[in-house]
User: Fold these one by one.
Assistant:
Number 1:
Amino acid sequence: MNTKLVDSIIQLIMTLPEEEQGLLKEKLLIETSVPSTTELMQLAQKSASLDFLYEEPDLYTLEDGEPI
């Protein structure tokens, strides 16, 4: 890992005006944000990675278990 480069970048960022630092942080957080539940559900639907579950037998019904 190039720690000198990282330190230099941090020093450079710290010299930016607050507004530009905020913009940089915002852009970095957008790039590394965690996908939402909806995005994950859409990804699972589109990728067909869980389609094998359609072949699984229905083990449970609405009558199973205790009512809440």
Note: The radius of gyration is 24 Å.
Number 2:
Amino acid sequence: MAVCSGGGHWVEMQRLLPAFEGSAVDLVFVSTHAAGDAGDAGHPYYQVRNATRRDRLAFAALAVQLASILRKERPEVVVTTGAAPGLVALALSRWLCGSRTVWIDSIAAAERLSMSGRLARWVADAWLTQWQHLARPGGPHYWGAVL
């Protein structure tokens, strides 16, 4: 399952698609991005609401949406490029499904990890940055840049 917010997070996730090609993976997308071009890739797509740290009600609604999707899809692995929807998806997928989780912090977080990226250390099996100078021995790790 690939989960991300819209905008740059969506663009980065689309850039990761070649990594999934040729595998036996049944890829499912979840994003706040409008569904218009999401179905073009031929994968199931779920649109969820966005949430920010200032809107707790939105977080609750997002968690309910994601829990429903996770119960239906039962992903083995959840990958996210952020932000809040991806972080919530990682936490819930570990708890509800026992999924392995991958956080790839946004390339826009060039000076320091994003807030969600800092929190992801607690729920990500692979906690990654796209900037080599932000990598640390205990994580986040640098495996390369998406863009």
Note: The chain has five helices and seven strands.
